[in-house]
Amino acid sequence: MKLKLTFLITCFTIVYGVSQNPLVTHIYTADPTARVFDGKLYLYPSHDIVPDNGVEAPRFCMPDYHMFSLENGNTWKDYGVILDQNEVPWGKKNSYGMWAPDCIKKGNTYYYYYPAAPSDDSAFRRIGVGTSKSPTGPFKWEKDYIKGVSGIDPGLLIDDDGKAYMYVASGKTLQVVRLKDNMKEIDGEVIQIEGLPKGYMEGPFPFKYNDMYYLTFAHVFPDEGYTIAYAVSKNPTGPFVYSGKIMDNIDNGTNHHSVVNYNGKWILFYHWWDISGYNKLRSMRADYMEFKKDGSIKKVKPTLRGILNPKVGDTIQVDRYSDISGAKTAFVGGNEPKGWMVCDTKMMSNVRFNGVDFGNDEAKKLQARIACGQRIGSFEVRLNNPKGKLIAEFPVEFTGGWNTWKTIETDLLESVSGIQDIVMVFKSEWGATKIVNLNWLLFKN
Ligand code: FUB
User: Fold this and answer.
1) What is the torsion angle, in degrees rounded to the nearest 10, for the CA atoms of residue 287, residue 164, residue 67 and residue 2?
2) Using one digit for the tens of pLDDT, what is the confidence trace for 36-74?
3) pLDDT score for 221
4) Sign of torsion, CA 429 431 437 439?
5) Between the CA of residue 108 and those of 23, 87, 134, 180, what are the distances in Å?
């Protein structure tokens, strides 16, 4: 555990992440709200940290917000801190309670909603708002919180008629309130949402699909723990009909999500604790989501692979596989930057990684980052399945040990175009249980 906790973290103003799950590895991020503005994908998560020595922090230690955008189809750009807890005009200082935010566009203005502990102690969390002409800020923060409503996890919906609704979680239930045109004041009473199941709920995220209102939320089943669930209604304020789970419990302390349609595909963003091994230090993830013909949502299976397509020139973290057989993954050691590797590669074990974008026959060479403590065997890269077209082959070489890393390179045997699934097949003598440790692959032109 200690090893995992020391895994991170230096925070730069702008950095780039990777295209698999978890989405970023340089800081802990939770509660991802994804939004598409003018065709570009943005993420507005919260930020978990390890408290500094001597700092009295609540169980979730959350001092500020970062935000991210998707660049070049496969990397996440971090814009740094967009709001610090001690810049909240109405907030209690050093309360480390900057929980799940949201951002929405109305007209030409972006409105960023966030919960924080108020200095007047009038509620556990109040909700503040900031405005900007850009989805990436800087935001101008309102001097006071939104009066007449309290709670956590604001989730926003702007209906087709331009009316705005804010959903919040408060007191284990979910509420909704209409906002005035200025988006900074409530319009009418806070409404308790009817038709939802029993059990603790939080993280309401609304969206509209085929003229139905979908309210998705984190829901704690007594014997299962956190799930992601949804309910539907013909009216934004309900009553809603509980319609089932979008994601089962994934052995996490919390789960919190958002749903977005990006380039014609539905994506569920959520969090887990892949890097830290501790459920208060979370990391954003994403997987594709599908609707059935009747409008119900197919349950999403969490994957390591995630959603994006690495291109020629990108590092492919094969330990974030689509499928694995006869091999394992573990944290890398030795002279390697932190990350994961494929290891314990038995004779004929294989790892599949779907969706590599080869462009128009752009790749001519392939690099592999390996560590190897023996000299016998090879590994192949094939298309589609373990017996598919062979596109590259590496004899293994002794690198100095199972934690001593080296980059090796070979020419591609075939021309490859378009988006392809690749499969790495490990070969040696029958009975071999450790052929090579593989960290990443990189196709080059
Ligand atoms: O991240 C802090 C809190 O944990 C969020 O507000 C909840 O939804 C849960 O994820």
Assistant:
1) -60
2) 999 999 999 999 999 988 888 788 999 999 999 999 888
3) 86
4) positive
5) 29, 25, 8, 16
> From the alpha carbon of 202, which atom of ligand 1 is closest?
8
Q: Please name the residue that has the structure tokens 């020391």.
A: 6
Give how far the C-alpha of residue 121 lies from the chain's centroid of Cα atoms, to the nearest Å: 32
| Mean pLDDT for the chain overall | 94
Contact criterion met (CB below 8 Å) for 30 and 282:
yes
For residue 69, report the distance from its CA to the centre of ligand 1, in Å: 21
Residue 414 known to be catalytic: no
Degrees (nearest 5) of the Cα angle 87, 105, 189? 80
> How remote is the CA of residue 421 from the centroid of ligand 1, in Å?
35
Q: Does 370 contact ligand 1 (Cβ within 6 A)?
A: no
> What is the CA angle 259-129-155, rounded to 5?
25
In this structure, the residue with its CA closest to atom 1 of ligand 1 is 99
Q: Is 254 in the pocket of ligand 1 (CB under 6 A)?
A: yes
Is the pLDDT at 12 greater than 60, yes or no? no
Q: Which of 48, 202, 287, 319 is catalytic?
A: 202
The answer to whether 125 touches 151, Cβ cutoff 8 Å, is yes
- Mean pLDDT, residues 141-170: 98
pLDDT value of residue 53:
82
Tell me: the pLDDT tens digits for 244-258? 999 999 988 899 999
Alpha-carbon distance 176 to 189, whole Å?
9
Pairing of strands 419-427, 126-132: unpaired
Distance CA 254, CA 283 (A): 11
- Ligand 1: which of 150, 202, 252, 282 to mutate, most ligand atoms within 8 Å of CB? 202
DSSP state of 337: -
CA 393 to chain centre: 33
Q: Is the pLDDT of residue 281 over 50?
A: yes
Whether omega before 138 lies within 30 degrees of 0, making that bond cis, reads yes
| Ligand 1 in reach of 153 Cβ (< 6 A) | yes
pTM to 2 decimals?
0.92
Spatial contact of 84 and 94, defined as CB atoms under 8 Å apart: no
Give the pair of three-digit tokens for residue 44. Answer: 């507005």
31 part of the active site: yes
| Structural tokens at position 387 | 């017996």
How, if at all, do strands 378-383 and 340-343 pair?
unpaired
